[in-house]
Each structure stands twice: as structure tokens, then as C-alpha cells.
Amino acid sequence: MSVLINKKMPPAPPAKPPKAKRSRMEREQIKWGLIFLSPWLIGIVLFYLIPFVASFGFSLVNFNLANPDEIRFVGLANWQRALFNDPNVYQAFRVTFTFALIALPLSMIFAVFLAVLLNSKSVRGAAFLRTMFYMPTMIPLVAAVLIWSGVLNEQTGWFNLILQNVFGIQAVGVTGIRWLANPNLIYFTLTLIGLWGVGNTMLITMAGLQSVPTELYEAADIDGASFWRQLIYITLPMISPVLFYNLVLGTIGLMQYFLVPYVLNGGNGFPNGTTNFIGIYFFNQSFRFFNMGYGATLAWLIFLVSLGLTILLFGSARHWVYYGSED
Amino acid sequence: MDSTITTPSVNSQTKSRSTFIPAKYRKPFNSVMLTLLAVVVLFLFLLPLAYGVMTSLKTDTQVTTAGAPWYPASPLKFEYNGRAYDIFEVPQADGDTLELALVTRGRESSEFINPENPDAGLIPWEGRWRTLDQVWYLDPVWENYTRAWNAINFPRLLGNTIFYAVFSTLGAVSSAAVVAYGFARYRFPYRSQLFIIVMATIILPPMVTLIPTYAFFVQIGWVGTWLPLIVPQFFANGYNIFLLRQFFMGIPRALDEAAMIDGASHVRIFWSVILPQARPALLAVTLFHFFFAWNDFFGPLIYLAGRPELYPITVGLTAFNGLYEGQENLIQAASMMASVIPLLVFFFAQRSFMQGVVITGVDK
Known about the structure:
The complex is a heterodimer of chains A (327) and B (364).
Chain A: H1 2-8, H2 24-58, E1 61-62, E2 72-73, H3 77-85, H4 87-119, H5 126-134, H6 141-151, H7 158-165, H8 186-194, H9 199-210, H10 214-222, H11 227-238, H12 240-254, H13 259-265, H14 278-288, H15 292-320
Antiparallel strand pairs in A: 1-2
Helix pairs in contact in A: 4-8, 4-9, 4-12, 4-14, 6-13, 9-12, 12-15, 14-15
Chain B: H1 23-56, H2 60-64, E1 73-75, E2 77-80, E3 83-91, E4 97-104, E5 109-113, E6 123-126, E7 133-134, E8 136-138, H3 143-151, H4 154-185, H5 191-203, H6 207-219, H7 227-230, H8 238-249, H9 253-261, H10 266-277, H11 279-295, H12 298-303, H13 313-323, H14 328-362
Antiparallel strand pairs in B: 1-8, 2-3, 3-4, 3-7, 4-5, 5-6
């Protein structure tokens, strides 16, 4: 089909007069293309475009679903509140960024570690191990959080029991390791819980590893480069696009981090406000207090911050992401 | 496909490293060590799952008793004169330890009876019985699953979840296939710009469109029903479009052209030529969406608030966790029940599922 079109219309259309009538074939293409696209075209307008614009409109009004008739236009008052007068917003972003700075590197290191390990020819039963490492990704996250909060329980959880009885560390009890109640530990605990979702990142990283040309390692072997040097100078640069992809998705995902803290503590910020992430704050404002106007403002703020971070990451990409030689 | 962890080559004398292992055995040794490392990490990684299984089988008293064994167990008892007594490990003067039943509890000294030889009468023992280890025996309580099943009303949660998963998957896959075909095979103005918008919707935070959408669904009376969760799925989601388009573009155009020459219509080509060719990708998208729906929490949480009879497993489980705090065994049993079906589907379909993950990831 495309072959026919290309023959009729060589790739230099500007020579034609702009108002040239489209051929029957081309009109047919446009008509059917749009017919097939129609579900998406309707959806994008109905569920993305209109709500996206309306969301900004909502941020300019005060609107509580408890009494929906009282819509009051307040101009930029919600924005002023979010940006300058509400310390909770600043605190929520600070908490979210702190968690991101701990969780993103640790979970990416774990994913790369697993991918390199399971990609190694020396490991027996790699396919089986890969499936088993992927498996917990399939456990519904709510169930996973409940399992983890049990295993990390300071009194009866296996983690503390093993630390105490096998390694002799005083871990059990209120004076021991309080994984879920210690503000200094909570982000590591949440990262640990998140590791059960490593499966996708691990598989994508493994696919990236398999696309690295073998000759690079052979040459490095001949030069006597150690495993660590090969990892740092060959493997990591070659899979940097995959790392970048995971980093972008991880960053955007963390800006919406909600389920794990909500299931753990109902969104009350325990311990000591450390789990009052911006996603939790947005939920509490919008669907607990039904402040729809302020909720929309927070949503837009989250969108703008995510956008800014994405742009920043893409800007940094040319310094560390390797996209192969230009050819 | 080469390994990234390179073993030193066996016959190169020049770079033999200082190690006690002869070069001949180094490769198998590395292989054993790395496999062992992977197995140890896997053991730690899956330990919480074992905890969940074990805890789900414990008795109500065991989950609240400090010092109880890690496996499901009950205290061993001995019946004496019509009453049951707990059995403890009692150290004897000669250094032995006997398993004796505690009959009279005293602060500094207690009286025991030997279950092996009850006719010998009460044995006095000096010391604090509270410092003794109790004797337990393996006693899995399978009824916990029945109790959790009834307490959480599992059949209803399961029915709701399957209903949601099936209909939203149907909508998501069919609409994405149609739209992806449009993007993959037709030429129309602004096609690449529109596709960039498809990609942008993938990373757009859903919150930014949520509140007007929610307010709209409140207005038309859909909040408190499944409709706001299922109907939007019929308008194709960016992630699925992207995945299917990648696959469709890999199907040779010669197939379409042959069908066209035979006089097949546009719809016919899509239905009888493209879709059968795209089975693996369709299966992957189906699985993705099925798991997404099974896991979905935020949507049901806000749209079904206050309608427990419509809750899917995820929201029902969270509510259950709030109500049965302290009944750790039932909570774990419910968590296990919620995980069984996704895990079964995964093990049966893992190949096409994991391939699908790679397709989306590698094409960036």
C-alpha cells in the first residue's frame, strides 16, 4: 500500500502547489486512518484535554463537594496558598524528594545487580532464578505491603527475630529495630518494600545487557581489565539508555507515590510526618476533605514539578547517556 | 548474549591471579559461588512470602505470644487428673533437660509432672518457671483460610475483581488494537505529532486530570458504580497503543497488500490478517491490563468509596486490615488468597508476559 503511494508521490511534495487536490487513494488513507483512531481521538479530548484544562480552571475556584452549589472564584489564592502559605506543601515535596534520593539509587543498583548476576553465563538455572525474582512483582501491591509490614513487625516479624537469634543483634522489641516506626529508617523500609517490584526493571536491564556487543568484553579481557573495570567502563555506559528510561519512569512514579504509605498507615504520615508524601497530601485534600479547588492546584503543581524534573533529566542525558555512534 | 561477569581464561599464564584455587578449577568454582550468591539473595528476597504462608497458618494465641516458634505451632499439653498442663523444657541437676508438665506455678519454685512417668507423682523444681522454654508442636490451622474467606467475604471481592479485570481488559485491548492499527498502517496529516501526544499521555501524572473527571462523574451520577473505572478503558490507553503499534509495524506489509488485491476491506484486513499475526503482542497487552486491573487501588478507592459491596480485592483487603488489626494470621491468609490467582496466571503465561515487558522497555 505504502509502496504505491510512494510511487505516486515522490518525497518532494513542496514543488506541488499547496492547494493540490489529494488523490482518491490519499483521501481513503486519511478517512480510514481517522476511523481507526476515533476511539483514541474521542478519549484524548474527553479524558485528557478537557480535564487537563478544567483542572487548571478548578485551581482558580474554591469548591467543596460537600456543598457543591457554593463555587467561589478566588483567582490565584489557591496557588498563593500552595506556593507560599501552606508549609505542608513544601514539607510534602521535601519528604518526597528525600525518599526519591534514597529509593531510586538503591532500587536501580539492586536491579542492575540482579540483571548482571542472572545474565552471567556462570550462574546455573538463570531462567528459573529470573522467574522467581520476577514473581513478587505479580503479588497485588496491597497484599505485598501487608506481608512486608508483618515480616518487619518489631515484635513478631521474622527480620528482627533472625537478626536477634541468628546474628545476635538486639533487634526485637521497642528498644530494637523499629522498621516502620523509626523516622530515620522508614525510607529504607519503604525502599525494601519497593524491591518486590524490581521485576520489570530487572528484565529491561537484562535486555539492555544482551544488546552490548560481545567484542567489547573480549577486547577488555585481552587487555586484562578486571570485572569491576569492565562493569564501569563498558557495561554501565552501554546500558545507560536503559538506566535513563528507568530513572525517568521511577522519578515520575515517585511523584505519585501513594499506595504503600496509605496501606501502612492510612495516610496519617506516621512516623512523625515522614510519610506525608505529596501524593498522600493531594489525596487527603481532595478526597478526604473534598477541597476540590485546592486539590486541583496541588495536582497541577505535581504535574509542573514532574515536568520540570523530566526536562532536567532529559537535559542531563547528553552528559551521561550513550546512544551509540551516529550512523 | 555474552556474560558480563568474565572468568579469567584458563590457559593464559600471564594474568594468573593470586588465589589458592588452581586455574583448572577456577571456572567451576566461580560458577558455584555466583549461583550460590543468587540463591542466597533469592532466599532473602522471598523470605517475606514464607513468613506470610507460615503466619497464615498460626493459631490466634500464637500470633500474640512472645517467644512462640516461627512455624505454625501450638503449645504441647499433658492431661493429668482431668486438666491440661503446659509442657516446658526443664534443666535437671545432672545437666540433662527433661520435658515436664507444669502443674503448680510458683514464683521461685514450681512442681512438675513427668508425662513419661506420671505415677511418680509431682516433681519439685527450684527456679523461675517463666525463664523456661515452652514445648510446641507443629499445628497448622487451615481453618484460618475459611475464616478469612468468610470474614472478608472473599467470593464477592473475587467476583468484583474479575468483573472489573475482564471488562476493562476487553475495552483496553480492543480499543488499543484498533488505534494502534491506525497509527501503524495509515497516512494522515499530523500522524507523528499525534503519536507524540500518545507518548505524552503515558508519562502524564493521572492526578492532573483526576479532579474534573471525578467531578464530572459525580455530576452524571456514576460515582459509586463501576462505570467510571470501566468505560474510559474503551478509549485506548497510550501504553497499550505504543506496544501494539510497535508490533504491528513489524508485520510485513506484503500480507496486507495481498489481501487488498484479493479485495478485502480495511476492517477485514485488520481482523483477518493483522490480528491473527499479532497474537503474542495481544496476549502480552491482555496480561498487562489484567494485572493492572487486578492491582488497581486508587481508582476503586475513590470511585467506590462507601460501597463495600462493590469493592475489589485490593480495597477490600485494606479495609479488612483496618478491622482485624492484631489478627495477623487472618490478614496474612487474606493476603495469600488475594495473591493466588495473579501468581497462577503468571506461572502459566510467564513467557509471553516477560517478553512483553522487554518489548516495551527496549524500544524506549
